Amino acid sequence: MDDAIGIHFLTRPLLFVALAALAFLPLEHLAAAHARPRRRFAADLAFATVGQALVQLGLVFATGLVLARLDGIAVDRPLLAGLADRHARFAAEVAVGLLLFELGGYVYHRLAHAVPALWRLHEIHHSSETMDWLASFRQHPLEVVLVTLAQNAPLVLLGVPLGAHATVLVGLKLATVFVHSNIRVPIGPLRFVVATPRFHHRHHQRDGGAANFASFLPFIDLLFGSHSDATSDRFGVARKLPDSFVGLLVAPLRRRDRRAF
Question: Residue 97 pLDDT > 50, yes or no?
């Protein structure tokens, strides 16, 4: 890998984290949904920096290879190629791409709460006891690779063009930070159309039944009977997990943790 490309490859996710901090820290201060408890920043900062670098490596060497293979068996004709108007076609491609992305992610998310091997990875994300913008980065790199495959494979197989595909990726990356953030968003009935922090915070509720698996489109949970409109204020998981970044990375792979579910 060329040095300049390598530097860009590693600094791009860090730039996104820095921009997310600049955008969400003031909003969380001005319109907090929950009182800000004392929290440990070290582990989540490590996930947002070192963890993001590990994710980038995994996406290139694992996900890239698999998606390239899938591209070889994808449909020959690009999705919605019959639409003559270029702008209308792009809008339709983004809409369909978003729906496919969401459905793939929803299926994976449901499995992550039902299959012990997947839950051990997903539990790391749920271990955060504080919901804010930084908590969105607490994801095990192996799980990020798996969920990225689940979300992107349908778009590749059905021929969603690269421009629309990239638009969906950027939009959902921003939405992921948003729905974890500690921001009060009083949008009334529109909360059933677009995911808000309230919607996703309910998914992280420590004592509630699993609900609200969609990332951006709540109607998917309404359709499959997994929607809850309840508010939440207590987060985390029941069992004790390590506090450190390295400890959280290793926890799902340890023998004794394999027996816990």
Answer: yes
Residues 159/77, Cβ–Cβ less than 8 Å: yes
Smallest CA-to-CA distance from 203 within 194, 193, 192, 215 is with 215
Q: Is 86 exposed, middle or buried (0-12, 13-18, 19+ CB in 10 A)?
A: exposed
CA distance 193 to 165: 21
Side chain identity at 4, as an amino acid letter? A
pLDDT in tens, 107-154: 999 999 999 999 999 999 999 999 999 999 999 999 999 999 999 999
Contact 27, 181 (CB under 8 A): yes
The residue type found at 68 is A
196 touches 185 (CB < 8 A): yes
Q: Single out the residue of 242, 46, 256 nearest to residue 141, CA to CA.
A: 46
Overall domain count for the chain = 1
Which structural domain range is residue 166 located in? 3-31+40-258
SS3 category, 205: strand
Q: Using CA atoms, how far apart are residues 93 and 80, in angstroms rounded to an integer?
A: 7
3-state secondary structure of 71: helix
Provide the CA 147 distance to its chain's centre, in angstroms. Answer: 8
Helix (H) or strand (E) holding 177: helix 162-180
Looking at the chain, the whole-number percentage of residues with pLDDT higher than 70 is 92
| Backbone φ and ψ of 206, nearest 5° | -65, -40
